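REQUEST ID: PR-0412
SUBMITTED BY: lab tech R.K.
PRIORITY: routine
TASK: structure prediction, single protein chain
INPUT:
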Amino acid sequence: MGDFLALMKPRVMSLVVFTAFTGMVLAPSTLHPALAAIALLCIAVGAGASGALNMWYDADIDALMQRTASRPIPRGRVSPEEALTFGVVLSLGSVFTLGVLVNWVAGTLLALTIAFYVFIYTMWLKRSTVQNIVIGGAAGAFPPMVGWAAAAGSVSIESIVLFLIIFMWTPPHFWALALYRTRDYERAGVPMLPVVAGQDETRKQIVIYSALLVPIAFLPALLGFGGVVYLLMSMCLGGVFLAHALRVYREREGREADKAAKGLFGFSILYLFALFATLCIERGVALWAA
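STATUS: complete
OUTPUT:
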């Protein structure tokens, strides 16, 4: 059971569920608690299905990379056929359950999310272009839209803004990881930005995307679905994010360079979690006050 759970990438799944939950909380309509739980479970299972199908297709390169060599398929604990079947069954089950029990807008978006991650990112972009993370980041940005659609039955500008925040967050987050895992990607032949364009260009792009992300993160406050607390939080967190990005740009040699990249990678997770948590808390306080 542990091996099949590992196929679902539970750490990634937890972030997907949390961002989807945020979209659900911020939506103007509310779901019955039972339906909300079903929706979140379906989104979690759909995310897990994407992870399993990703590991099935990428088993050859996973075996070559230190970061992924201990995954169930390279270690021989799960066969590729088992992983494929597992992923397909979970994909179909999560999409149809969400569509039938909640609504088909959310079900269709979940299907699109899984298909984009598996076919567009995993099977095409990841091995063919340096823009793999930039374009492929859309797959990880869909969950708040799915959560919003589950509650509201539609997609709106607010959910698109949540999508944009995650979309712009993804490149500096993953490029920071790629900076101190460059040899892994070289060994596997994956055209990540540091492998193709070099680490200096990657550092430059991290600063550019970080500078674009920070003002985009202000949009919830400017559009009225984030309050003053969110605006202050996004300003403070954005400043720290930029400071980490600039440190990555400055530190280019040895352990300090790796330390800077790891620092940005770790903080980026906290950054996204804190932003979305603040939106949830503000919404909860507003509902309680009403």
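NOTES: The chain has two domains: 1-154, 156-290.
REVIEWED BY: pending
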